[in-house]
Amino acid sequence: MATAVQKITLSSARDIPFNKLVLSQSNIRRVKAGVSIEDLAASIARRGLIQSLHVRPVLDGEGRETGMFEVPAGGRRYRALEILVKQKRLNKSAPVPCVVGANDSGILMEEISLAENDERVPAHPLDQYRAFQAMREKGMTEEDIAAAFFVDVNVVKQRLRLASVSSALLDIYAEDGMELKHLMAFTVSQDHARQEQVWETIRNSWQKEPYHIRRMLTETTVRASDKRAVFVGIDAYEAAGGIVMRDLFESDDGGWLQDVGLLDRLVSEKLTTIADEIATHGWKWVEAAVSIPYGVAHGLREIKGVPLDITAEEQATRDALQEELDRLTAEYEDADELPDEVDARLGEIEAAIDALDNRPVRYDPEEIAIAGVFVSIDADGSLSVDRGYVRPEDERPVEVADDEAPEDDVDPETGEIRTPAVQRTVITIGGQPVQTEEEDEDDGLKPLPERLVIELTAHRTLALRDAVATHPQVALTMLLHKLVSDTFRHTAPTGCLEAWVKHLYLSGQSEEMNASPSAQSENARHESWGDHVPADDQALWDWLEQLDDGTRLDLLAHCVSFGINALFERPNPHAASGISRHGLNVRLAQADRLARATGLDMAAVGWKPTVGNYLGRVTKTRILEAVREGAGERAAQLIDHMKKGDMAKEAERLLADTGWLPEPLRMSDDTASADGQLPTQAGGDEELPAFLADDGDDEESTEPDDEEHVALVAAE
After folding, report:
1. pTM of the model
2. Which end of the chain is more exposed for a tag (fewer CB within 10 A), N or C?
C-alpha cells in the first residue's frame, strides 16, 4: 500500500497596519551592507513594497495574541517603511503585505531570518546589464535609469556599454568563460566581428591581460592625442563621419580615431587650405607636410623680416596684463599651491603677453617674390609656419655689363635655349609603409638594413654635433688635430671633421629627428648666435676680434660642430664622390673618439627603440636579441611566440626605460690605433663591423623606394 505524501501548508498572507508591526530582536542582520535604508525607502516610494514582510504574532504572558506582530525577516524593509512614515509620505496605519507564520510551528525566528537572507541569490551582473539595455530600448534615458537605481549616470553608461559587446562573448561571460575585466576591455570597440576574432586569438593563450585585448582592438587606430588628430580636431573628424572609440573603464587620453584614412584626408585638406591661403600673399612656393624633415632648409638662404611696431592700444593692453601678472604673482608668492582659477588666469595672461611680444613680421615684397614657406604640424598638434627661405635657383642674378653677360645655355641636340627649371611646391603627407604580418626567419642575425644604419648614424651625428658644441676644449683639440694632420701628415685621411666646416645635410633621417632634444638644442643655439653675427665681412672680422676668449671658444665649438660627419655610407671606392672602406673605418673610429671625449650617451639624449625607428624594421631574431640584452631572457621568452608586428610593439614597451641601444649607437669598446684606423682581423682585409656588412639588398628591409607625395602649385 502506497504511503500518502504529507502535504505542506503555506503561511497565510494578510495586510497588517504598519503601527501594528514591531522589529523582532531575533533578526540576524546586524552589519550594514548593500543598499542603504534611505535608498531602499526611495525605491519603495517609487515602486512599492516588492517583497512582503515575514511576521509572527506577539503573545502575552498567557500565550494569547496581543494584536501586535514582530518582524524576524524583513528588518531593512521595516526600517525603510519607518522612514517613509516619519517623512509623512506613508500613513502610520497603512496596510503592509505580510506573511504570517505560526508560533507553534517549531521553527525558530532566527532560522527564518537567516534562511531569508542566506537563500537569496543575487542576479548575475549580466542580467543587470541587459535589464538596463531593455529599459534604454523602451525609452528611458540614461539619466532616468540612473535616477531610478540611485547610481551615477556614468555607471549606467558603463553597464550599457558592457551589454553592447558581442552576444557570443556575453554568453561566454555568463558561463564564467571570461572575467569581467576582459569584458570591459572588449567595450573599446563596437566591431563585434573583431571582438570575436580577438577572443579566438587569445582564448587559449597565456596572454589574456586586458591591456593586450585593448591593444589588439586599437592597433589600426590613431590616438586622439596624436598631433594629426589635435590639428584637425575631434569635432571636425566626427562631423566628417569619423568614429571615436572610447574606453569607459580606463583612462584613454581622449580615445582612438578609428578611420585613419579619413583623418589623413582631413589633415591633407586642412594643410592644403592653409598653403593656398599663404600662397596668396605672394610667396613663390609653399611646402606643407605633416612633419618637415630636419635640415630641410640646408642650402637655402633665410630672409629676415622686420617686426611690426606695437600700437599704442596694444602697448596699453600689454601694460595692463603685466600689471595684473605682477600683482597676482606678489599676492600668491608665499602660497604652497595656487587656486585653480588663479593658475588658469596666470596662464591666460602669459599667453596673451607672448602673443603681443611675438610681433608679426613684414617682409620685402621683392624678397617674398623669390622666397617660400614651410608649413608643418608641431608635436603638440599646433600649426607651424616658417617663412622666408630662398632656394639657390631662385636667387636673382647679379647685374653685369652687356659685354660681360653670359651666353644663353643652348641644348646641343635641339638647339633650343634652356630655361631655368621652376621649383614646384610639394606637400608631403607621409604614411607608414605596409608591413607584412610575418617575415622569413633566420637562425642567425642578418645585417641591419643599410637605410636603417644610415638613419641611426644620422641620429648619432646630430647628437655628436650638439655634444661637441658644448665642449669647446674638445672642439679646439679636434680642430687643431685636423689642421696639424693636414699640415704635417700629407697622407692624413679625411676623417670625421671637414675643417672648413661645411654644414653637411643629413640625408638619412626619420620623422622624429626634427623634434629630438639634440635638434632643438642645435636650432636654439644657432638662432642665438645668428642674431649677433654681422653680415659684412669686415664687420664680422672686427666683431670676432672684440669677443672674449670664452665667447670665442663657444662660437668655435658651435661652428666646428656643423662639420661633424659620423654617417655610415656604403663604401664605393670606384666613384669620385664615394668613400673607401678605409675612409669609413677612420670616420667611425674618430666619431667614437669624439663620443668618449664628450661623454655622449645616446640613451641619455633621448633615443629609445621604437617600432618606427628600429624594432619594426629588423628581423624577429634581432628583436629578441634586443629584448634579451635590454630586459633579460625572461622578457624575451614572453614574446618569442608572437607575430612580427605584435612582437615589435611589445618589445618597444619592454625596452622603453632600459637604455638599450643598437650597435650603431653604442660606444665602441675597441681602442683606435694612432692614425684613427679601426682594428682589423688578422691576416685579412679591413672588415666593417657585422652590423655594417654589405650583403647586397636586405630582404628584411621594409623601407619604401619612394615616399608618397602630394603636389600643390603655389603662386610663382
Report:
1. 0.51
2. N
Q: What is the pLDDT of residue 498?
A: 60
Cα 510 to Cα 615: distance, rounded to the nearest angstrom: 14
Query: Of 609, 635, 613, 616, nearest to 624 (Cα)?
Result: 635
Picking from 129-138, 342-351, 446-455, which range would have the lowest pLDDT averaged per residue?
Answer: 446-455
Strands 53-59, 95-100: pairing kind: parallel
Is residue 641, in this structure, part of any structural domain at all? yes
N- to C-terminal Cα distance for the chain?
115
Joined together, the cell numbers standing for residue 169 give 562573448
How many domains, the chain? 5
Strands (E), 243-322: 244-245, 256-257, 285-288, 301-302, 306-307
pLDDT for residue 490 is more than 70: no
If asked whether residues 479 and 603 sit together in one domain, one would say yes
Q: Check residue 437 and give its pLDDT.
A: 42
Residue whose C-alpha is closest to residue 292's, from 376, 232, 372, 226: 376
Report the b/e string of 11-31 with b at 16+ CB within 10 A: eeeeebebebbeebebbbeee
The strand pairing partners of 23, in sequence order, are 71
The CATH number of residue 42's host domain is 3.90.1530.10
What pLDDT sits at residue 647? 92
| Mean residue pLDDT across the chain | 77
What is the torsional sign of CA 679, 681, 685, 689? Answer: negative
In a domain, 714, yes or no: no
- Tell me which residue range forms the domain holding 33: 12-118
Cβ atoms of 475 and 465 closer than 8 Å? no
Contact indicator for 298, 503 with CB cutoff of 8 Å: yes
Q: CA–CA separation, 371 vs 302, rounded Å?
A: 9
In this structure, are 294 and 169 located in the same domain? no
**Pairing relationship of beta strands 361-362 and 53-59 according to DSSP bridges:** unpaired
Rounded CA separation 370/362 (Å): 15
330 and 393, same structural domain? yes
Same domain for 273 and 385: yes
Pair 595, 468 in one domain: yes
* Res 110 pLDDT > 70: yes
pLDDT band at 586 (very low <50, low <70, confident <90, very high): confident
